[in-house]
Design goal:
Elements lengths: L12 H7 L5 H14 L13 H11 L2 E5 L6 E5 H5 L1
Length: 86
């Protein structure tokens, strides 16, 4: 069985106070990190910056796709323009 690795990080006073009433902060933080990783951009990994190669692939992809706002939830999503051409 692999040993758990301990990772520490600093928080400001406001965040520390907000978390002070959480019974199991370690479990809460683990769940929050896993949720965030599951919702990160598949291209940039959540850092908001594409490498040169990723940008090249994105530009090729964007030739036939566009970003559109959903009329119901108002979130942005990708739309394939090939679908409209049939």
């Amino acid at each position: 069985m692999r040993r758990a690795e301990v990772i520490t990080f600093k928080v400001d006073e406001e965040l520390a106070q907000a978390m002070s009433h959480i019974e199991n902060r370690s479990a809460f933080i683990r769940q929050a990190i896993l949720a965030a990783l599951g919702n990160s951009c598949p291209l940039c990994g959540g850092n908001g910056i594409l490498s040169g190669s990723q940008l090249s692939h994105w530009q090729e992809f964007a030739e036939h796709h566009r970003v559109q706002e959903c009329g119901s939830c108002h979130e942005l999503h990708l739309v394939c323009e090939h679908d409209a051409q049939g």
